Request: fold
Amino acid sequence: MLSSRAVISGLRPIAAFALLAAVSCAGTPKPRVDLAAPHSLVSEAESSGAQQYDSADLETARSELQQADQNAKDKPVLAQRQGEEATVDAQLALARTRSAKAEQSLREVNSGTATLESESQREQNNNGSGPQPGALPQPAQWD
Reply:
């Protein structure tokens, strides 16, 4: 039979290991989640008019950001990933919004240019001066 002294000395390494494990776990803080950038990008997308031009990506970014906010305390790694996904979707919404606005501006410029060309053409027709745009010059007549 084992003496109580032998049992205690056999438990010392186990107790030391358990104490070490408890101290190391207690000393490791949970990772902190920084969701400031995703919040900023979603706000920028909202103020840029993404709701009008790319509501689907904006809504996805909002949803992911809301989930990240909810998970930030208890599941920081998941929250960080969701924040990154929200960032990507907000950037996509911003890019598509800017693209749509640029295309709209281009159409407006092209329309204005066409109007000016039309007015210039009409003015030339009224005054009878200058060649018609796109008209080929007439060959010289030989007598």
Notes: The CA atoms of residues 9 and 16 lie 11 Å apart.
